[in-house]
């Protein structure tokens, strides 16, 4: 039997990309609140020969994670867990909504959802005496600040702290935990953020311009790193938060270009993006 991996937030975007990557080599338990999209992803993967179970549920409830462990035990031995489900929250700190519900929701899904996921994964690894691996999806927002993102950033920094704790406390038993901190990645959520932006084209260009690799990442590029971290190929890697962000978090801001090199590579000398005629 193949090892089993639980992936939360698997109905869309980065979680779906991770599920597609891991369907070859692992049996999967896919978790999401969106039952229609989740079942569509599961069906697509089953048609390609993958073993896939689904749990429709809210990650902020511990019960959802307990159900995921129970589903995993029906198809094999749980050896990996990816906490990817997350929502954004854009609130100015000086004018947080009086109604606490929206703010608490971001904390509950991102932070508490990942906490329950880690807790149930570790409990299962210990019960089965398995050297399991956990990957939590945080964000470059966990280490860099951006306008009106205080609440979201707090949850993502908390995920990195939780990851370190799990790695240090359970390392002696061969359990590993790492987080992946994506930069701008083209998911359904990102597409929606362009639709909602007052200037979608300008917003997209700003993201591309400020990223040293001058483009938005693909979900498959996050999935590559997650798969590596779950696999034994990363057997000496634990307690880390790895930015997969085209160099964004390494930068001091919009980088000026070497004018001769920009010309040689056919790039706009101000933005670093390809010239339109090329
Ligand atoms: N896309 C990016 O640029 C980016 C950058 C950094 C970090 N991230 C993080 O990556 C993760 C995935 O983001 P994405 O862009 O793919 O978003 P997405 O909206 O495309 O996918 C998120 C998935 O999580 C599910 N989900 C939301 N709340 C849930 C809940 N309470 N219980 C169960 N499932 C729930 C959604 O239904 C959806 O299927 C998030 O944690 C996000 O914070 C994304």
Automatic annotation (TrEMBL):
InterPro entries, per database record: NAD(P)-bd_dom_sf, SDR_fam
Q: Which Pfam families match?
A: adh_short_C2 (PF13561)
Q: List the molecular function annotations (GO) for this entry.
A: oxidoreductase activity, acting on the CH-OH group of donors, NAD or NADP as acceptor
Q: Which family does it belong to?
A: Belongs to the short-chain dehydrogenases/reductases (SDR) family.
- The identity of this protein, by name, is Unannotated protein
